[in-house]
Amino acid sequence: MNLAGLWHYWVVIALMMIGMYTMIARENLVKKIMGLNLFQVSVILFYVSLGKVAGGTAPILIEGAPATVYSNPLPHVLMLTAIVVGVAVTAVGLALVVRIQGAYGTSEDAELSEIDRADEAGAALARGEGQG
Amino acid sequence: MIEHLPVLQIVIPLLGAPVCLLLRARGAVLVFATAVAWCTFAIALASIGIVLEQGEVVYALGGWVAPLGIEYRIDLLNAFVITVVSGVGAIVLPIGPGIHGHTVSASREYLYYAAFLLCMAGLLGVAITGDIFNVFVFLEISSLAAYTLVALGNQRRALRAAFSYLVMGTIGGTFVLIGIGFLYQMTGTLNMADLARLLPAVLDNRAVHAAFAFLLVGVGIKLAVFPLHQWLPNAYTYAPPAVSAFLAATATKVAYYLLLRLVFTIFGIGFVFGALGIAPLLQVISLAAMFIGALAAINQTDLKRLLAYSSVSQIGYMTLGLSFGSVAGLTGGLVHVANHALMKGGMFLAVACIVARTGTSAIADLRGLGRRMPATMAAFALGGLGLIGVPLTVGFISKWYLVLAAIEAGQMLLAFAILVSSLLAAVYVWRVVEVAWFQEPLQSAPHGEAPLRLLIPTWVLIGASLYFGVATDLTAGIAAQAAEQLLEVAR
Amino acid sequence: MSDPGSHMRMHEKLVLRIVAKRFIPFVLLFALYVQFHGDFGPGGGFQAGVIFAAGLILYGMIFGLGALHRVVPPRALEVAVAIGVLLYAGVGVATMMLGGNYLDYGVLDSHAPAHGQHLGILLVEGGVGITVAAVMLTIYSSFGGRERE
Question: A2 to chain C nearest CA, in Å?
Fold first, then answer.
């Protein structure tokens, strides 16, 4: 197998793994969103590299120009949509982080879990008292 | 106008959302959004009639014929799913966000309806389109709207639930996108029918295997199939109850539809069950979902969380039906799509009724509610009977077909497992019934029923689940026909 | 950005203010160029909408959110989001009324389908541009407009 000739896949995979790792390992929710972005960008690069035709130019038809080899424009157009989806996800995600920060006073995952556990224990205690 | 029905199915709710933004006034938006949702449901009913009569309907968007353009293609399977989604949507939407102690201020309620309609349009779009990239776009439209709706819950934990739903959902969506990329690379087409035609020639290629793996995991996350279900319990628990009802009844069902399309239409049963041999894997996963979901449900102290884990368990039944690859199995899985939508939608709405009156969904606080809110609790109990699979309820129909499929496949152990897991369902339903009817009411327990705006939709869904439990030819009949069609294509 | 004090400081920087004032009209003009040149070359509503929004966001960053809201009130943004989508889908509905399939631009001009295609894509891209610009500005102003918690 010609591994070196497929270098663009290696770039894609490296980016994807960095993104995944960031999402899993980082405690901060904003950093998780950044990881998510990296992950999505790697897929966008993957698609764009799919459309590359060796020696091809930008697929713009110019009247009178001689026939040339064009890159496949379809993956690029698809990625335009994927970018929009990515922007929308980022916007909704960041909006949620802002609301979480407002409601909890922190955006660190571990601290949030700590607060939630304390909440639950408090609620259980209150219920126990109410019944007792 | 009849020939435009497939596109109107999507365009009407999609257009309804921006119109909600323009209308703004609370009453006007409510009336308008309700009209849009019911209109969508009417179109779905009309479509299913047309498909039953004439067979497959194909609609080329922009007049560009596939594979160049995007086409909407409705056969019995899509029509069935679309009817379920739009029907539940039409019943649940008018409840609105405001009835159960929410965080949406009355002046911004129009945004809820806009998000709801967008979610509906996205889900319907996934089910209707014949273009696989279009599937990704609609999947993300529906998911984004769903994250927003979940975040509207009245506790701050709803925000965290929505956030982890967003992260998981986006990973799932992106996996689907990667899978689509590999498929496009191998075949040069995005049209599902075209893919089905071109793929057999390249099925041995590693890239196609990778595509299938990515698509399976991606859709699996959206479907919340065990062990990819981690986002589901929190999302359903902390979302506003009406949203839980809608999402539980539709979002995972559409993902299930997508799984069927991938396995049977695009990749073909020969590849998935023959060359890859994933049927045993699917069966193990399904069994794990059925049992672990049900056991987790038994241990919950919150009614909504109990129902959420029960959903995980019920999704196991659907994937189990798929794994048989037979008409009986698929019929069971498909009919369970409709049945579970009705039962679980109705039960979540019953919880909404309880929350509206008591302000809590803790099981311990249900004491004696069977006497204080008989209509609500009766609806809940009847839905619960359906989950167990008692004869004369819809749940019995699905399980009947599943057991039949297991016996047909000679796997008595699986048939036995289905029965045992039904007993587990009986345990968690009984826990609630016991608290509600056989314990003394709390001093603070409310007198009187939930508002009719909630009670009527609850009983419509539960009533439908009873009706279809007796009149089986409609749901089970169409599901069986759709299963036959699907397997015929797959051959 | 939410701190009003920082806006004041940005506003007082003479170089920033002058450069921004000179710059913004060209950004907006370039957005329109990208929008309408999309028929013949690279461009289109999506890119144009983002560039247009970027120009206005620059204005908002230098002169403060209040000034931006005087130019484009939040309510107008919300309406613009809806109008853009409705324009897009409205073209589709119009083509259906004229007997074609949804978004079949060819039927928009009964004599020359090519003209119909031209008109259709122009309107659709217009809708895309309006919605994208309005959404970008909405995102900016809803994040930027929050008080520090």
Answer: 35
